[in-house]
């Protein structure tokens, strides 16, 4: 198969895409990750239109974003993606984020699971025999995803109730990957983000969440690290670990 092992998409950050700090929000980076991964998968012949013929679709399982700085309003930036490896159950896809001058400002690691759209169980990737030909030996310098542990409710420093609504639901009729990130980040006030940047954001999707689900979000903050999870009916549906750095 003759297909590009790497794929780059260039962007321009508009004012309407910026957060209150006039820079690119990390949730938009996550959206771009999904978009660029989808575009590259389509080029490789393993996109939605190809896999759905076998009733299979990709689901984002884990995501780690590490940034040294964020694009600012009216700034160009790009994401370059490549596949690090795969096994029977999942594929590892990495990305590099560069600014308009070609300087690296961040990296991304992601894990994608191919699932049977009816049973919602993982599908066997070994049936895509030529997928091994798409693997790149390009390194990704950031650490792989760490093990995200449950949050002890008695040690929680933040607690919030949240109900997922229509705007949270995607075409699969479950909560969009980025909406979990929104729910986590909305635990802090505006001043917190005026004074701090997110240096690293790790998220693990454990179970599907649906329209109308009432969630309990609990967070344990220790110095510059926040460990947080979304519970639905006392069961963890999603966990995250956020590392902040002071702007001062």
Please provide a written account of the structure.
Helix content is 15%, strand content 40%. β4 and β5 (104-116) form a beta hairpin. It is globular. The model has no long low-confidence stretch (mean pLDDT 92). With 248 residues, it is of the alpha+beta class. α1 packs antiparallel against α3 (177-185). It has helices spanning 26-44, 48-51, 177-185, 190-195; strands at 6-12, 56-67, 76-86, 90-99, 104-116, 158-163, 196-205, 214-222, 225-232, 235-246. The chain has a ten-stranded antiparallel β-sheet.
Topology overview:
Elements: E1 6-12, H1 26-44, H2 48-51, E2 56-67, E3 76-86, E4 90-99, E5 104-116, E6 158-163, H3 177-185, H4 190-195, E7 196-205, E8 214-222, E9 225-232, E10 235-246
Antiparallel strand pairs: 1-3, 2-5, 2-7, 3-4, 4-5, 6-8, 7-10, 8-9, 9-10
Helix pairs in contact: 1-3
Question: Which blocks of ≥5 consecutive residues have pLDDT under 50?
Answer: none
> How large is the radius of gyration?
18 Å
Would you tell me the overall average pLDDT? Answer: 92
Order of helices and strands: EHHEEEEEHHEEEE
The total of helices stands at: 4
Determine the structural class based on helices, strands and strand pairing.
alpha+beta
Task: Choose one word for the global shape.
Answer: globular
Q: What amount of the residues lies in strands?
A: 35-45%
């Amino acid at each position: 198969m003759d297909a590009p092992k790497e794929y780059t998409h260039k962007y321009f950050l508009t004012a309407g895409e910026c957060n209150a700090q006039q820079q690119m929000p990390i949730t938009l980076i996550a959206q771009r990750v999904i978009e660029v991964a989808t575009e590259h998968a389509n080029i490789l012949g393993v996109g939605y239109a190809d896999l759905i013929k076998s009733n299979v679709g990709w689901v984002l399982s884990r995501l780690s974003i590490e940034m040294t700085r964020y694009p600012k309003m009216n700034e160009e930036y790009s994401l370059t993606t490549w596949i690090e490896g795969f096994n029977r159950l999942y594929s590892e896809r990495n990305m590099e984020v560069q600014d308009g001058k070609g300087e690296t400002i961040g990296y991304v690691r992601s894990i994608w699971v191919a699932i049977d759209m009816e049973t919602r169980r993982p599908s066997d990737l070994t049936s895509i025999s030529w997928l091994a030909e798409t693997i790149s030996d390009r390194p990704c310098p950031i650490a792989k995803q760490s093990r995200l542990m449950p949050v002890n409710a008695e040690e929680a420093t933040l607690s919030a109730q949240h109900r997922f609504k229509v705007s949270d639901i995607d075409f699969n009729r479950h909560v969009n990957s980025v909406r979990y990130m929104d729910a986590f980040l909305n635990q802090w006030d505006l001043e917190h983000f005026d004074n701090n940047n997110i240096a690293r954001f790790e998220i693990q999707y454990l179970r599907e969440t649906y329209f109308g689900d009432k969630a309990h979000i609990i967070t344990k903050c220790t110095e510059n690290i926040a460990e947080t999870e979304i519970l639905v009916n006392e069961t963890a549906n999603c966990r995250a670990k956020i590392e902040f750095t002071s702007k001062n």
